[in-house]
Amino acid sequence: MRQSASSITFATPSMLTQTHVETDPRFAFARVKGDICLVQLHPIQSETSLGIIVFRHEFVSIFRYSHDLRVSPEDIRVLELLDEDRIRYEEDNGTVFLAKDLMAQLRRMLDASSMIRMHRERQGRRRRSN
């Protein structure tokens, strides 16, 4: 799944299982319960839930392990599977380093997401005031 600088492609929940790798965990940018996160998808999944590891942004391009999570397919949308060559993962201390271009891509996704939220909030206020 690739995206141009001007648009974001969102995967459908059913597409998650199609793009999910069966053997090795994969890093991805994903929307989990409404928030865009860096996650590691795990190959072990059931029909009703998926296992993921969520990483929190710590500094510039550094992310650290936050927590393990089981989510239903409806609660996660993979925005983009990440190229393993653009990531350094230090599993022993739970630290992930992303290449600059991946950070720029994540910033664009976050900016687009916040613009959509602001637009929806304004529309909601207008409807309530009418």
Briefly summarize what is shown:
The protein is α+β, with helices and mostly antiparallel strands and 130 residues long.
Give the low-confidence spans. 1-21
Q: Helix segment count?
A: 2
Strand content: 35-45%
Gap from first CA to last CA: 41 Å
Strand order of the largest sheet: 5-1-2-3-4-7-6
User: In terms of structural class, how would the helical and strand content be classed?
Assistant: alpha+beta
Shape by Cα distribution: globular
**Helix-strand string:** HEEEEEEEH
Mean pLDDT: 79
Largest sheet at a glance?
A: 7 strands, antiparallel
Total number of strands? 7
What is the CA-based Rg, rounded? 16 Å
Helicity level, as a percent range?
25-40%
Explain what this protein looks like in three dimensions:
This protein is of the alpha+beta class and 130 residues long. The chain is 28% helix and 40% strand. It has two helices and seven strands, in the order αβββββββα. It has a seven-stranded antiparallel beta sheet with strand order 5-1-2-3-4-7-6, sandwiched between helices. A hairpin with a 4-residue loop joins strand 2 (35-45) and strand 3. The termini are far apart. The model is unreliable at 1-21 (pLDDT under 50).
